[in-house]
Description:
Layout: E1 2-10, E2 16-25, E3 30-34, H1 41-45, E4 56-61, E5 64-65, H2 71-77, E6 78-81, H3 94-104, H4 109-122, H5 138-150, E7 156-160, H6 168-179, E8 184-188, H7 192-198, E9 201-206, E10 209-215, H8 216-220, H9 223-228
Parallel strand pairs: 3-8, 3-9, 6-7, 7-8
Antiparallel strand pairs: 1-2, 1-4, 4-5, 9-10
Amino acid sequence: MINVQSLSYTYPTGVSALTNVSLSINAGETVGIIGPNGAGKSTLVNHLNGVLLPSSGSVAIDGIAVEKKSFENIRKKVGVVFQNPDDMLFMPRVIDDVLFGPLNLGMDEHAAHHAAEDALHDLGLGDLADRPPFTLSQGQKRFAAIAAILVMKPSMLVLDEPTSDLDPRNRKKLISLLNSMAMTRIIVSHDLDFVWDTCSRVILISHGTIAADGQCHTILQDKVLLESNDLELPLRLQQ
């Protein structure tokens, strides 16, 4: 489903974030992207729907190159939930934010309202539809942002640091939600216990390159590998 070939990216400031990264992700996989701060994790996933475009190399989704002329098609397939939900919630009411995507994709207004109400209900936010987003808790904002993506029925869901503002109850709720999905899921996270609970595969990014790519529990139990890349074992494995 995802094919990244020799991807390199340098920011306008001259900082090189990714160097010659190649990987493939199959439909239905759940992949954790881990690594220390500044490793290039968010830069990598921001190439999956055209937030960033390669300095060199290529990215393709379902055989379609990610480039300006394919943005509309790609962004129907790839739903990205940013690290800060406030970056995605900007309308007067929660339901307006969830409606924003479907209406801009040309969905009939009645059908869009029905889909938005269903998405909020499925995430336990039905009674918050008419609330201004700024009145929500951080956990409620997180799930509202997810609803705003899921309502568009993407085939791939990308979440950037999804547990950064969740209490234990909402963290458990998100684990259950992700594990119930059949779509491709890519999770960027420093929360290695969360990755352990939700991912079957892990890609470790370090200094803009892939340091390891393999089975989740194998990589997350490799203390030497993790510590050599400024990470620690998941808390459940620490003694």
